[in-house]
Amino acid sequence: MPLDIDRIRAQFPALRRRVNDHPLVYLDSAATSQKPSVVLDAERTFLEQHNAAVHRGAHTLAAEATELFESSRERLARFLGAAPEEIVWTAGATAALNLLAYSFSNASRGRGGEPAERFRLGPGDELVVTELEHHANLIPWQELAARTGATLRPIGVDDAGRLRMDEAVEVIGEHTRVLAFAHVSNVLGAINPVAELVALARRFGALVVLDACQSAPHLSLDLKALDVDFAVLSGHKMLGPLGIGVLYGRRELLDAMPPFLTGGSMITSVMMERAEYLPSPARFEAGTQPVSQAIGLAAAVDFLDELGMEQVHERDAELGQALVTGLTAIPGIRVLGPAPGEPRVGLAGFIVDGVHSHDVGQFLDELGIAVRVGHHCAEPLHRRLGLAASTRASTSVYTTDAEVAAFLDGVGRIRAFFRA
Predict the structure, then answer these.
(1) Global confidence as pTM
(2) Each residue of 9-31: pLDDT tens digit?
(3) Going by C-beta distance under 8 Å and a sequence separation of 6 or more, which residues neighbour residue 51?
(4) What whole-number distance in Å separates Cα of residue 233 and Cα of residue 239?
(5) The organism sits in which domain of life (predicted)?
(6) How do residues 304-345 score in pLDDT, each as one tens digit?
């Protein structure tokens, strides 16, 4: 059944706002999504009724908190087609990617012993990324290369922003140890060919890291079926709270990796000279955990599951096509990424000829329309496309056809307003 957008919107308190005396049209969900009441209530109920430190204490609240925390992990695992032991809570996707990079760095210095040897890097080894990555999936690998002497190699994009698979075949080779790439571009809305890239990496035994931040809110994910070794996602982009993210990793890999953060709750025993660590996921969850945020993210996953991710994806694809088709029809607008009719999520980056993206954003904000402006933490991609910045509109399950129409009408008035 088609999604009941009116019923969905009624569950998002923020969408009742007015901005500059206009109804809020929120088209910045790729940056952070709005939260339904069930997510807000889940966090509030935990803090009001069950608040306690998890995995510590024998009292009732501690037991309740631990049960809620771990059941949230189980719910995320089901959503991603994974086992609970393969789900590590982090502060966000950026933290998850840094966890991987620093763990590999520790392995390269001999930490973790023989099981961690497969993560050891040095001169002659190569880390492969793409030219369209978010900085969070680029800079950690830059730093890892600098610490280990490995080489960072990019796969380029063409003038339309499409990943150059002919170049990927040349770049991914016998020296490739890690291939890290985004499932969906946060600038272009393009869906990258995961199966083809994974097959190239498997040919040479390279580890595959998938940035699923922009795919998790829009596509039905089965990480086992995708055959990736690691994946990261961000809770606040998929209707969940801020400050919570997920690292997925195949269990045998996580158990072999040396920890990144150390301290309480991730150990089996501690002596004055050394410590021994728990298996995953506990070995990567040192200290105080984002308990209420994890519970809120599980509520967001339940919300999406109730809608049905196939229906979410179908609706999202419709909105993406409406955005790109409408923008393409406006004179003086250059749309980035896939052309109308080509697969994309509900996200469209664009340029208004003669008008800076920040002016575009301010003009639309006067109409109550929220969009993102700048390089969207993807400066190398913008540089490759010959741009300093762009404007991005992005949708979610609560976006209406009328909001897309209002946005397109606003964009159509920009060049005349600025006399471009």
Answers:
(1) 0.96
(2) 999 999 999 999 999 999 999 99
(3) 61, 65, 292
(4) 12
(5) Bacteria
(6) 999 999 999 999 999 999 999 999 999 999 999 999 999 999
Residue 1: pLDDT over 80: no
The percentage of residues in the chain with a pLDDT greater than 70, rounded to a whole number, is: 100
- Domains, the chain: 5-30+309-415 (3.90.1150.10), 42-305 (3.40.640.10)
Q: Catalytic annotation on 213?
A: no
User: pLDDT-based confidence at 2, cuts 50/70/90?
Assistant: confident
Spell out the SS3 assignment of the chain.
CCCCHHHHHCCCHHHHCEECCEECEECECCCCCCCCHHHHHHHHHHHHHHCCCCCCCCCHHHHHHHHHHHHHHHHHHHHHCCCHHHEEEECCHHHHHHHHHHHHHHHHCCCCCHHHHHHCCCCCCEEEEECCCCHHHCHHHHHHHHHHCCEEEEECECCCCCECHHHHHHHCCCCEEEEEEECECCCCCCECCHHHHHHHHHHCCCEEEEECCCCCCCCCCCHHHHCCCEEEEEHHHCCCCCCCEEEEECHHHHHHCCCCCCCCCCEEEECCCCEEECCCCHHHCCCCCCHHHHHHHHHHHHHHHHHCHHHHHHHHHHHHHHHHHHHHCCCCEEECCCCCCCCCCCEEEEEECCECHHHHHHHHHHCCEECEEECCCCHHHHHHCCCCCEEEEECCCCCCHHHHHHHHHHHHCHHHHCCC
Q: Cα(342)–Cα(324) distance, rounded to whole angstroms?
A: 10
- Check whether 361 has a pLDDT greater than 90: yes
